[in-house]
Amino acid sequence: MSRILVMIPSGEVYDHNNVRWYSHRDIQRNINHYHNIGDAFVFDSSLKLLNFDKLETLTIRDFNPAEIDRLREEFDYVVLRGSNYINEQMNWELSEKVLDRLQLPVLAFGIGAQAPVDGKLSLSEATRNVLRLISDSTASIGVRGNYTAEILADIGITNTRVIGCPTAFRHNDPDLKIRLPNIDDVRKVGVTVRREVSPAYAKDIRQYLTFHRDLIKSVAGRFDTVLMAQGELEEKKLVLGTPDQGEEAIASLRKNAWVSEWYLDDEIEALYRNRLFYSDVVADYDACVKACDFVLGYRLHGNLMALANGVPALYFTYDSRTREFADTFSIPSFDVFSDQVFRLRDFWDQSLFDTFNRAYADTYFIMSDFLSENRVAHFMRDRTPQSHPRTAVAM
């Protein structure tokens, strides 16, 4: 076992390796605060794969030499939770100074880059420096996909491994297989919703939202449907807020020009009032997707949570991040901005999911090898079918 520091966590840890948002018992405390619970999926999943007996947060917003020196003596390595850190707006606070003094290996656990709609991704000097520090500290950097590896290669970082995301492997099952049921037997379907999106990354907001609206309505018209949100304020208030806060949320949505024109009609409002799901506890999403026969939608980690639980899922891609993810795992996907008409039956093809099954198994072992080559104690299996969960030597 090992002693790990977590850099940029997302939620509080309970029962050793489970994650929930900090205010889950006091919803009103953060009812007006946006947080993407998908980040907590990644954090929770990462902890489930690592073999550790001590965990603490590495603070990067201030620089305390004495505290950093203590951490160096008491911990083995740092985990940088996988997320979309490689972008033009990333604020690393005092990470460069902290990591330079700490001198511990930093495990980049599935980090990713985000490309803008127009032009080439431009990274700040702080981002370049932090990424180089991380690269120099370990045998390899775990990245989300090939695009991210290319961005890092452009700044001279070549010790990358394409490992996807820990969420896919949260149940640590290299033998997981997705099997499509007969489409006529499907009763309950989950739609992962993402109403908010930036025009910097999605090239046509009108098409994004109108397609999203029509998808929800089409699915809800045919199946028992649950709409799975991941943190937008209005959706959160509708599920967890008071009745007055729910009405405030609807009023806010109606006042939003894009939403009122291209997304929120009477049918979507009724579905939002009656079919919406949100939770601040990661385990609740496991339960939600397990109750579904099929999941589809816009949420990267919401869809991946379904696949990790053996539930077929279909991605709707709209930016470099979602395309990279679908490509890494060969997940069946539909481009929201294509000129094609989406028909669910076109994707009801077991061969598409057999391709995913092969990519999943390959990436599972790539991630296991990645953890081992970085001398991180973990529970993932190696490539020998009869092997037991591996515990690598901790640093």
Biggest sheet statistics:
6 strands, parallel
- What is the straight-line distance between the termini? 10 Å
Strand order of the main beta sheet, please? 4-1-5-6-7-8
Q: What global shape is seen?
A: globular
Number of strands: 14
Strand/helix succession: EEEHEHEHEHEHEEHEHHHHEHEHEHEH
Q: Specify the structural class.
A: alpha/beta
The count of helical stretches stands at 14
Low-confidence stretches: 386-395
Helix proportion range: 40-55%
Computed over alpha carbons, the radius of gyration is 21 Å
Keywords for this entry:
alpha/beta; disordered C terminus; 395 residues; six-stranded parallel beta sheet
Quick structural gist:
The protein is α/β, with parallel strands linked by helices. 40% of the residues lie in helices and 15% in strands.
